Amino acid sequence: MQYRNWTALLAIAAAAMTWCATTSHAQQKTSAPAKSARAARIAGQPNINGVWQAMTTAHWNLEAHSAEALKGFWQLGSLAAIPAGQSVVDGDGRIPYKPEALAKRDANRAGWPSADPETKCYLPGIPRATYMPYPFQIVQGGGNILFVYSYSTANRIVYMSNHQQPPVDTWMGWSNGHWDRDTLVVENTGFNDSTWFDRAGNYHSGALKVTERFTPVDDSHMQYSATIEDPNVFTRTWTISMPLYRNIEPNAEVLEFKCVPFVEELLYKDLELNK
Predict the structure, then answer these.
(1) How far is Cα 149 from Cα 143, in angstroms, rounded to an integer?
(2) Segment (H or E) for 136
(3) Would the pLDDT of 87 be above 70?
(4) What is the longest distance spanned by two Cα atoms in the chain?
(5) What is the sign, positive or negative, of the torsion defined by CA atoms of 67, 68, 69, 72?
(6) Is the Cβ–Cβ distance between 155 and 148 less than 8 Å?
(7) What is the pTM for the complete model shown?
(8) How far is CA 176 from CA 1, 76, 96, 190, 191, in A?
(9) 94 backbone dihedrals φ, ψ, rounded to 5°
(10) Are the CB atoms for 255 and 150 separated by under 8 Å?
(11) What is the pLDDT of residues 27-76, one digit of tens each?
(12) What's the average model confidence in pLDDT over 171-175?
């Protein structure tokens, strides 16, 4: 389920954070003060509440890529150039496309930016939402876990109990989670085929399954990985991995990036009546 109503989201977040604060206060009374956020725990699990952000160029391309200019945007100079980046794909650094799927990836890439769902402000999907160049917030209480993203006011609930099959395919999929010791494991299914992995045209089909792992390392970062399964597009499963960093500013928060108003002309200009 994805909510578009931020008032409802904030109410859910406030309730969860109130529970967290109560639990934390009780822990402080019965145990020694925590030396870092890594030591804090909620219902026996690591406390991963906070505002997080990836610091990679994965949103441009999951694979290694050189710096280059964007064709057709010469007026913007370096503002529209693609920065170089290293691959976040484990192993040989390459995405294992089937030959016919690779051809479609190349066509997607040639059609960028108009072909990219991000350009149209569509919900980004998983795992793309994690490493877009915007922060996201994790709200963890004693039960389900809420993820809130800046871009397109996207969000998702990770169901920690009462796991179910997705009732319908959506952009953000359906997330069932569990703890494996100190690692949050999230299995995501029920995706449509309308999202990409990055701006380089890397894509998937509706058969996509994404298994994420969030492992706290210390009070300022955690290790993130996502294993991709899609037999319609890839020859085998493959995994991306990267660190996520906690925003430690005293006033850190996720601000809404409601991009729909910015794409209305792009999407509907041709329907405008001649005056």
Answers:
(1) 20
(2) strand 136-140
(3) yes
(4) 72
(5) negative
(6) yes
(7) 0.85
(8) 12, 43, 26, 11, 13
(9) -115, 145
(10) yes
(11) 333 333 334 444 589 988 999 999 999 999 999 999 999 999 988 888 98
(12) 98
- Tokens for 17, please give them: 């954070």
CA-CA distance, 143 to 181, in Å (whole number)?
A: 16
The 10s digit of each residue's pLDDT in 232-242 is: 999 999 999 99
CA-based nearest residue to 173, from 136, 209, 203: 209
Q: What whole-number percentage of the chain has pLDDT above 70?
A: 85
Give which of 28, 97, 27 is closest to 62, Cα–Cα: 97
8 Å CB contact between 130 and 53: no
Q: Between β-strands 174-180 and 155-159, what pairing exists: parallel, antiparallel or unpaired?
A: parallel
The domains located in the chain, with CATH, are 6-31+40-64+82-270 (2.40.128.20)
Joined together, the tokens standing for residue 258 give 């409601």
CA atoms of 105 and 100, how far apart (whole Å): 9
Per-residue pLDDT band for 259 (boundaries 50, 70, 90) equals: very high
